[in-house]
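We give this protein:

***
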Amino acid sequence: MPKNRNTFSSLTAWRRRIASRAVHAGWAVVREAGAVTAAHPGRLRFRRIGVGTRLAFPQGTVFGEPWIELGDHCIIGEQVTLTAGMMPGLDLGAEPILTLGNGVVLGRGSHVIADTTVSIGSDTYCGPYVYITSTNHSYDDPRQPVGKQWPRMEPVEIGPGCWLGTGAVVLPGARLGRNVVVAAGAVVRGEVPDHAVVAGAPARVVRTWDEEKGWQPPLRTPAPVPIPEGVTPEQLVAIAELGPELEPEEA
């Protein structure tokens, strides 16, 4: 009896391994087939989708595509919402409403809500679950539910080269300059100058760049050593494998 039980357990484990591999292989095929690119847009008809840009599958809510422009080599993670207009089917005019520059990265679960114009500059990276919106609920009338009152809309502009940490929120009317760092969980409104770091809710400037003095207050950690030009990925892998065996003076 114990032998039969062991045989049955081994057979069950084997079946589960086979089923698991099949599910993962099938899901990989589905993800690849469901990804959106310029060559394979599926049902989505963006105003423009650049070369090398890819929307991972499954996508989040997407509508108003004729008023959405995506630059080249953008990476849009899974379950990212991209909307232009308050609802599908509206005529929003001749100009784009939501614009992403080249090389923009939107992390998994992020939302970009553009009821009026929203622009995100080139090479801006967003961590997961970032929320960028041009619309906010109003609560002027205390007798009406907030959700039923007409919202306020203001354009949003995010400059090139910015970094928005996980869970950051960018509110209507915000204007971020070039290479701005938004800390995780920060809630940004108003104007943020170039080369600034903001944190908190509401966000405030906690570090700025001075041409003569550098970062103020000074950074607490040394700058990372860049990878030398010409180093190949294969060489980096080889160095990583040798790393634990190197003496400190050799590293």
Notes: Residues 189 and 243 are 45 Å apart (CA to CA). Residues 247-251 have pLDDT under 50 and may be disordered.
